[in-house]
Amino acid sequence: MAITLYELVGRDAARPFSPHCWKVRMALRHKGLDFQCATAGFTEIPGLEGGYSKIVPILKDGETLVADSFAIAEYLEDTYPDRPSLFGGEGGRALSRFVESWSQRTIHPALARLAVLDIHDILGEADQAYFRESREKAFGATLEAFVADRAERVAPFLKTLEPLRAIVGRQPFLCGESPLFADYIVFGAFQWARVSSPFQFLPQDDPVALWFERCLALHEGEGAKVPAAA
């Protein structure tokens, strides 16, 4: 039966932007699985699949539903073991957990300080109201104030990428000569910023930017098919 991936979008349904949904989209392509995409805005997620999950991505494979990007990756790995591995073994699975933890605690908060107002601006009207209220409550500041000093935050953020830069500066992907799910985890964060915000923060010759370009070209240019925000 067909696999369906539920993804988060703003006003333009052709521009999925969630970092977590991008992880899964790339994982599906890595596995060589046929799938179709269905889209939802923030306020539509609770109505998907009878209220199955409050978050996306949601994967529907036949009658099976799975939410959470890492849980979906594990499901794909375990359900389709004859397809290319996402982890390269149990050690890779455990290390991918570390990469996810690092990405969500280091990269995601920094990117939010750069792009959160731009994310708000690409949403539909109902989602804008939800997004502003929920994020401003979490941040303790208006969205405008939260990003007001973003230009000054770029240099400190780039310094935090040194562990990633050191690895992808000497090998094509985080996981070696070819990508695994750990690459897609970090790729999802940068794709989130690329699709939702025109703010440029990575120098073109930065090894991280070059790695990101290689990721955009993977799987027949899956990531590059969605143009960068302008």
From TrEMBL:
Superkingdom of origin: Bacteria
GO terms assigned for molecular function: glutathione transferase activity; maleylacetoacetate isomerase activity
Record-given protein name: Glutathione S-transferase family protein
PROSITE patterns for this protein: GST_CTER, GST_NTER
Domain GST C-terminal: 89-230
GST N-terminal domain boundaries: 8-84
InterPro entries per record: Glutathione-S-Trfase_C-like, Glutathione-S-Trfase_C_sf, Glutathione_S-Trfase_N, GST_UstS-like_C, Thioredoxin-like_sf
Coiled coil: none
GO biological process terms held by the UniProt record: glutathione metabolic process; L-phenylalanine catabolic process
